[in-house]
Design brief:
Structural class: alpha+beta
Bound molecules: flavin-adenine dinucleotide, iron/sulfur cluster
Number of helices: 11
Order of helices and strands: EHEHEEEHHHHHHHEEEEEEEHH
Distance between the termini: 62 Å
CATH class of the largest domain: Alpha Beta
Strand content: 15-25%
Shape: globular
């Protein structure tokens, strides 16, 4: 059974969510949700479409502080001169997501909350029936690790990497009230439940107040368009010379390394990255290659940062 709801206000969305008693999924641009439903990986009966709540679609830049409504499309972020001037890192990350057509519909909120991926899980029902299910579906082992009792599906959000490097905060709203927190804190190191949003919470806003002195961004993928990330690295240096380097696509959560540039060494940076990334063989690119590319990308960033 499938029921589609299209509330005009956030309060209406909460009322519908309450009646659905957990058996629902929020739908923003739907570019991720639709695939999950088609592959029978999302089995909720109710879809709550947020696209008629116009208050959630906005771009504001006041005193250099950026506030984005969660329903702002990636396309609108890319074409915004205001964002391009002040936060080119975010534009670069948004441009690297999917394809132009998908970016017209895909929202920034949906991209931050995009579901973790794994080559053994993000497949059709027939494929999964043939190979055997896993912990994240109806099976009882992890296929990719040959039987471990944990899920290592990868967080693949490109804009989350950029926004964490920009020290972004998010605003969440639920029927009980509003809360704000650093974006990096919503991610859980678990491939099955990868966000800590609470049941009916709606992500309403993303705010960035950091003014980076320098930034760097690079994404590894098979083709130059369409493909999800095999490794994304986004880095900033703030006015106090703090380096924030965020890696994504190689672990269950985005991995942030935050340290004063003066004390950071390349050797230590690579060591921390490789230790914190729980990378397994669940991507189109082989594990050994992706792990090697962590070194390559960090070395490239290091050379860029220390160029004369
Ligand atoms: C061919 C293809 C290629 C892709 N390539 C990439 C890629 O390179 N990089 C990448 O990061 N993604 C990629 N994606 C995934 C997806 O298109 C993007 O992540 C997109 O930005 C998701 O945004 P959306 O608005 O469509 O989200 P939706 O699909 O609507 O939602 C995504 C998730 O977020 C939740 N959600 C959305 N908004 C809110 C909110 N305001 N409050 C609470 N929960 C919310 C939904 O319930 C759902 O779980 C690709 C998808 C396809 C089909
Ligand atoms: S990492 Fe293992 S448990 Fe998680 S989705 Fe992949 S195969 Fe399933």
């Amino acid at each position: 059974m499938e029921y589609y709801h299209s509330p005009d206000t956030i309060q209406d969305a909460f009322s519908i969510a309450e009646k659905c008693d957990g058996n629902f999924i929020y739908f923003a641009g739907g570019t991720d949700v639709q695939i999950y439903r088609k592959q029978n990986l999302d089995k909720n009966d109710h879809i709550i479409d947020l696209s008629s709540i116009h208050d959630l679609n906005s771009i504001s830049l006041k005193d250099g502080n950026l506030t984005l409504g969660a329903m702002t499309s990636l396309g609108d972020i890319i074409t915004s001169n205001k964002i391009q001037n002040k936060y080119p890192l975010l534009v670069e990350a948004a441009k690297s997501v999917a394809t132009p057509v998908i970016r017209k519909t895909a929202t920034i909120g949906g991209n931050i909350l995009v579901r973790n991926r794994c080559t053994f899980y993000n497949q059709s029902q027939e494929w999964r029936n043939g190979v055997g299910s896993c912990l994240r579906d109806v099976g009882d082992i992890c296929q990719v690790t040959g039987g471990k009792n944990d899920c290592y599906s990868r967080n693949v959000s490109d804009t989350a990497a950029a926004l964490i490097a920009l020290n972004a905060e998010i605003t969440l709203l639920n029927s009980a009230g509003v809360s704000q927190q650093p974006l990096k804190d919503i991610f859980l190191p678990c491939g099955i439940k990868f966000h800590d949003l609470g049941n009916d919470n709606i992500l309403t806003q993303i705010s960035v107040s950091m003014k980076p002195k320098r930034w760097w961004y690079k994404k590894l993928r098979l083709r130059k368009t369409l493909d999800f990330t095999s490794l994304t690295v986004a880095a900033t240096i703030d006015i106090n010379n703090i380096a924030r380097i965020c890696l994504n696509g190689v672990s269950m959560t985005p991995i942030l390394i935050e340290e004063p540039l003066e004390t950071l060494t390349l050797e230590n940076l690579i060591k921390q990255a490789r230790k914190n990334c729980k990378t397994v063989d669940n991507d189109l690119m082989p594990l050994k290659y992706r792990r090697e590319m962590i070194n390559v990308f960090l070395e490239e960033w290091w050379e860029y940062e220390h160029r004369k």
